[in-house]
Write a structure and sequence with these properties.
322 residues; alpha+beta; seven-stranded mixed β-sheet; five-stranded antiparallel β-sheet; 8 helices; 27% helix; 26% strand
Length: 322
């Protein structure tokens, strides 16, 4: 670990309190000048630091640049965090790490993505400083059929993370959109590589993008997208807290995937149940009524001709009532 990262972790753990240059120098076995240079470099990266003669350095409670140390202090489990100021896609980075042998629970986070994407390669708007964009490397040791539930585990985890940090009840639009007030605040994309010999997955990567801080969305997104926090609601370290809560809740459900531990919450939060919807699923399309969500998270729908189908994937949109 570089000296700068060590100093940042110390400042994160004592956020709002002053640590003297002498104290930091002694802790890490370096000169006070080396500490000063690291502090200046951190300021250049956007961290809000204050320095007071005879008191030392303090990381402001309002500093909101994501860092491994800033997230780790809110985590219950152990993860290998790689935090980037910007990248093309955290999923692409995590996939490269997985292919190179990275262990399970390696996590890539970025402050911004230049080429974030969701299902069907749709772009996911990922501007700097307002969201949580993360991807987790997994090495599932479960039957291949069970890996279909990785995404549903992630959706429940995001809902619970939002509720624990923001105090807002989040819902799920089948299959994997997390919503507040029926507007999307999170998208989830799971990608995987199959092991031909075993017939299972060599690895999987689940990418999660959450709109956290309040912002004005561009016209195409404004009617359908929202942020977790409204204007003036954002708490100190909100993004770090949500990132940590997502990881811990996702791990809980992922490690109990064969027990379907996620299912009761997934169904309870699924707001398309009982709705009239427009279906697009493989070769199936048309108007239908949602009847149920079965134990495999298949959506049970009845089309206008009376045909009942169990949908394993696809998209539905709620039909407006006139």
């Amino acid at each position: 670990m570089e000296l700068k990262e060590k100093i940042l972790r110390a400042l994160e753990n004592a956020r709002g309190e002053y640590l003297s240059g002498e104290q930091l120098a002694a802790q890490f076995g370096v000169s006070r000048n080396a500490v000063w240079k690291c502090v200046r470099a951190l300021e250049g990266e956007g961290f809000l630091l204050s320095s007071v003669k005879n008191r030392g350095y303090a990381l402001s409670a309002e500093s909101d640049v994501l860092s491994a140390g800033g997230i780790e202090k809110f985590l219950s489990g152990r993860y290998a965090l790689k935090v980037l100021p910007e990248t093309g896609s955290t999923n692409d980075d995590a996939k490269a790490l997985a292919a190179a042998g990275a262990p399970e629970w390696t996590v890539v986070l970025a402050d911004a993505q230049g080429a974030g994407r969701g299902r069907y390669s749709r772009p996911f708007d990922s501007p700097a400083g307002v969201g949580v964009y993360l991807s987790v490397v997994l090495r599932p040791q479960i039957p291949a059929a069970e890996t279909l539930f990785i995404t549903t585990c992630a959706a429940v985890a995001v809902c619970e993370a939002i509720e624990s940090v923001a105090g807002k009840y989040a819902e799920i639009k089948w299959v994997n959109d997390v919503c507040l007030g029926r507007k999307k605040v999170c998208g989830i994309l799971t990608e995987a590589s199959f092991d031909v010999e075993s017939g299972g997955l060599a690895w999987a990567v689940v990418g999660i993008g959450v709109n956290v801080k309040y912002r004005e969305f561009p016209p195409p997104l404004a009617p359908v997208a929202a942020s977790v926090f409204g204007e003036g609601e954002y708490p100190a370290e909100g993004r770090a807290k949500i990132a940590a809560a997502i990881l811990d809740r996702f791990r809980y459900y992922y490690e109990r995937i064969c027990e379907r531990a996620f299912y009761p919450e997934y169904k309870r939060r699924s707001f398309v149940l009982g709705q009239s919807v427009t279906v697009l699923s493989g070769t199936l399309s048309g108007e239908a009524q949602v009847l149920d969500l079965d134990e495999n998270c298949f959506l049970v729908v009845r089309f206008a001709d009376g045909t009942v189908k169990h949908l394993s994937g696809g998209e539905v949109s709620i039909r407006p009532k006139f």
